[in-house]
Amino acid sequence: MQRSLIKFKPAVRDDMQLSPLIFSILANPFPIFIEGNIETYHQRSHHPRRRNLGYFDLILVTKGTLFLEENNIQYEVKKNEILLLAPNHLHFSYEESEADTSFYWLHFYTETEWFETTNPIFLNPTFKIPQLHFHNKVYTLHIPKHQKITNVSFTVDTIKKLLQNTKENDDFIFFENQKLFIDLLKQLEIKKEHFNTSQELAQSI
Q: For the segment 32-69, what is each residue's pLDDT rounded down to a tens digit?
């Protein structure tokens, strides 16, 4: 399978402590939202140790600070920041909460390839997409591992709606939730204007 590395112009970030790592996740087929919730840790609470969860773990802090370690790297996740944890790594609190800390967590699953690197990677699907007829595009999501969200109201409202929908006794809510989840990932994705002009060349290698 071909994998094309491209040069990357980082997004402008106010907090230089944010991780430079980026998840490149093949979107054919698209990742599936599994479950989520909102939690509050009181002072001196800590996140449990988890390894090989099997799902991506997306965390959005709405109050306080989470002190999380994954793959021997420590992260301070502050209010209105998101941390995306990998499915196969050990993560845990390296420090107890200093004050009440609230956060949303969402688990999502994918069977496609993904990579965690400092530069985005464009991935090709393992299945063949015929070129003779009208066909869908191949797409790779590029989501920063640690980012400060800019559209707070949209992000929080989307997560609230997503979680509220899980209480509905309606099989078709699955499709509504997938649409909401896709909208959320697109909001968190690195915008195209942050890729430089070497992208087209890199994709052709």
A: 999 999 999 998 888 888 888 899 999 999 999 999 99
8 beta partners: 195
Chain mean position to CA 62 = 16
Residues 170-186 as b/e (b if ≥16 CB within 10 A, e otherwise) read eeeeeeebeebbeebbe
10 upstream amide cis, omega within 30 of 0:
no
Q: Which residue has the tokens 């773990």?
A: 57
Return the structure tokens found at 145.
Answer: 């591992």
Question: Rounded distance, CA 33 to CA 16, Å?
Answer: 30
- C-alpha distance from residue 189 to each of 63, 95, 172, 175, 204 (Å): 23, 29, 26, 21, 22
What distance in Å separates the CA atoms of residue 97 and residue 43, rounded to the nearest whole number?
5
| Residues 194, 195, 199: CA angle, nearest 5 degrees | 175
User: Whole-angstrom Cα distance, residue 68 to residue 199?
Assistant: 33
